[in-house]
Amino acid sequence: MLEAGHPCGDCAARCRAICSVLENDELKTFRKSGATMRLAAGETLFYEGDPARSVYSLARGTLRLTKMLPDGRRQIADFLFPGDFLGLTLEEGHSFSAEAVTPVEICRFSSARFEAFAAIHPQLERRLYALAAHELAAARQQVLRLGRKSAAERIASFLLMLAGREQDSGSTTKSNAREVFLPMSRTDIGDYLGLRIETISRELSAMKAQKLIRLASTQRIEILDLERLEDITAGETNVPGCVCA
Amino acid sequence: MLEAGHPCGDCAARCRAICSVLENDELKTFRKSGATMRLAAGETLFYEGDPARSVYSLARGTLRLTKMLPDGRRQIADFLFPGDFLGLTLEEGHSFSAEAVTPVEICRFSSARFEAFAAIHPQLERRLYALAAHELAAARQQVLRLGRKSAAERIASFLLMLAGREQDSGSTTKSNAREVFLPMSRTDIGDYLGLRIETISRELSAMKAQKLIRLASTQRIEILDLERLEDITAGETNVPGCVCA
DNA sequence: CGAGCGATTGATCGCCATCAAAGTGGGTGG
DNA sequence: CCACCCACTTTGATGGCGATCAATCGCTCG
Questions:
Q1: Chunked in runs of 10, what are the mean pLDDT values of chain B (245 residues)?
Q2: What is the pLDDT of residue B62?
Q3: In a domain, A99, yes or no
Q4: Residue A71: its chain B contacts at CB < 8 A?
Q5: Which of A103, A224, B105, B173 is the most exposed place for a label (fewest CB within 10 A)?
Q6: CA A169 to CA A83: how far, in whole Å?
Q7: Do A29 and A123 share a domain, yes or no?
Q8: What one-character-per-residue DSSP string does B45-63 give?
Q9: SS (H, E, C) chain A
Q10: Phi/psi of residue A129, each to 5°?
Q11: How many domains does chain B have?
Q12: A32 with A120, same domain?
């Protein structure tokens, strides 16, 4: 438990973030080595290929990691939520761009200082590996979705994945997770699932017609029949849950 | 440089493997904590869901990591080559199956002993993170291939990726890497690229007709026009090279 | 109230899957 | 050493899913 008045005391992402392995004084020192920054929706944190001089921990909001092909086709490699970490790479530059889907709040650290700090805090390094392993499992799940699943299966799988993530980030309100919030546009969902927006729209409408979901608004989807939705995913949505120790 | 007669002295994978960060005595101790095993082509090292009690370093041959959907659709998440490491997970069980594509030779360690060893050899942990980060980048590359590329683009990209890997594993002979060896069947390639074998076959024939490649045999493909092949990939084949320090 | 952007719905097209059949090559047994 | 067999690959014909093109809806903001 953090002492009263700790600068990280009110961080919503603290339980999931990389810094969850640090306590009071360590954490204060760590925080002082970095800075907090904000981005408006649509702004870019860094571009693919940019030299990787900083690492980041997302405190609030949603980010998307994107890769572009020269002709403009775009693939979203991942969406990041509070507590997620990004930016550490062994290559010269970043291998994707990072953009704000919603307004975001980010803790930023210089790579050099972060690495130095990690070197003397082995629990940070272990945590780092844990996060990387977790992301790797998620990326492979995504490979399965894109390689072998139909449009309906991808979308059902996506909805349930988001429902699961909302749950383990201990999101604000209802823990029954029947309601999924989609912070991103249909275009973003399409670029994540390898589908066109029209297909996303059509499939969601079809699911609505079958009373699997209810479209409370464009961004809020209520899951009406969890079981049948799970059947549609064709299994394997088990992106393992929270990495919280 | 290892002393003469060292048990790992003749390991072809040594430069790339996890153990590359260990020297003489450390390496001897490490090796003694494990065992060497062999599998014939087609045999399974472990199944998805099996409890993860061991970790492995591939010394010779090719492995495939697969995920199955209940109805039999299969996705190959990755092919592993000499020097690749696998098995370390934070979940209870493995998140994919591992099968031998060719006869393989594997160094096996109990997870518990490996972790204990890593805890007192920080350079192993860093190496581990490096490998995970590298695999993550590769997995995201695969996400791009599957999400946004046409059949021809996927195949061209796959061929060039293999050509690149052969090169940095310092493979036996010719370093100009104009010849790519495909240890896996067309079915495996299809299950990796999210395509059917007929499509693989047709596209390779088309590339042959355009004199981009020559099919020396089913398993050996000679690249005749590297430049045009790179154009076809629609960019972004740059899976960063060898992780050798 | 009107402008503009994102989402939805509709109609048609094209790529790759599917179904089907013929070709190829490696291994075994006679 | 050869003939056969079987599994894998290649090639051909057809069909379906999701992309593309197009029009309308609906919300937000000026």
A1: 80 84 86 91 95 95 96 96 91 93 95 91 86 92 97 97 76 61 97 98 97 94 95 73 53
A2: 96
A3: yes
A4: 234
A5: B173
A6: 8
A7: yes
A8: EE-TTSB--EEEEEEES-E
A9: CCCCCCCCCCCCCCCCCHHHHCCHHHHHHHHHCEEEEEECCCCEEECCCCECCEEEEEEECCEEEEEECCCCCEEEEEEECCCCEECCCCCCECCCEEEECCCEEEEEEEHHHHHHHHHCCHHHHHHHHHHHHHHHHHHHHHHHHHHHCCHHHHHHHHHHHHHHHHHHCCCCCCCCCCEEECCCCHHHHHHHHCCCHHHHHHHHHHHHHCCCEEECCCCEEEECCHHHHHHHCCCCCCCCCCCCC
A10: -65, -40
A11: 2
A12: yes
Q: Do A159 and A194 sit in the same domain of this protein?
A: yes
Whole-number Å distance between alpha carbons of A115 and A117: 5
Say which of A70, A90, A236 has its CB closest to residue B67: A236
Q: Is the pTM of this model over 0.85?
A: yes
Are residues B114 and B213 part of one domain?
no
Residues B37 and B95 in one domain: yes
- A95: nearest CB among B130, B137, B243: B137
- Does residue A10 fall inside a structural domain? no
Residues B170 and B204 in one domain: yes
Q: Which residues contact A235 (CB under 8 A, 6 or more apart)?
A: B69, B70
Is residue B104 within a helix (H) or strand (E), and if so which, with residue range? strand B104-110
* The nucleotide closest to B218 (CA, C1' atoms): D9
The CATH number for B105's domain is 2.60.120.10
| Chain B touched by A114 (CB under 8 Å) | no
Contact state of B147 with A78 under an 8 Å Cβ cutoff: no
Tally the C-alpha atoms within 13 A of residue B33's C-alpha that lie toward its C-beta: 20
d(CA B79, CA B230): 21
pLDDT digits (tens, 9 = 90+) for A55-112: 999 999 999 999 999 999 999 999 999 999 999 888 889 999 999 999 999 999 999 9
- The DSSP output letter for B65 is E
Q: Which domain holds residue B172?
A: 150-232
pLDDT of residue A164: 87
A147 inside 8 A of chain B by CB: yes
Say how far apart CA A79 and CA A115 lie, in whole Å. 25
CB contact under 8 A, B143 and A142: yes
A168: confidence class by pLDDT, cuts 50, 70, 90: low
User: Does residue A188 carry a pLDDT above 70?
Assistant: yes
Judge whether residue B150 contacts strand C, using its CB and a 7 Å cut-off.
Answer: yes
Residue whose C-alpha is closest to residue B193's, from B24, B61, B110, B75 = B75
Question: A98 Cβ partners below 8 Å, 6+ apart?
Answer: A44, A45, A46, A56, A63, A64, A65, A66, A80, A86, A87
pLDDT band at A169 (very low <50, low <70, confident <90, very high): low
Cβ of A198 less than 7 A from strand D: yes
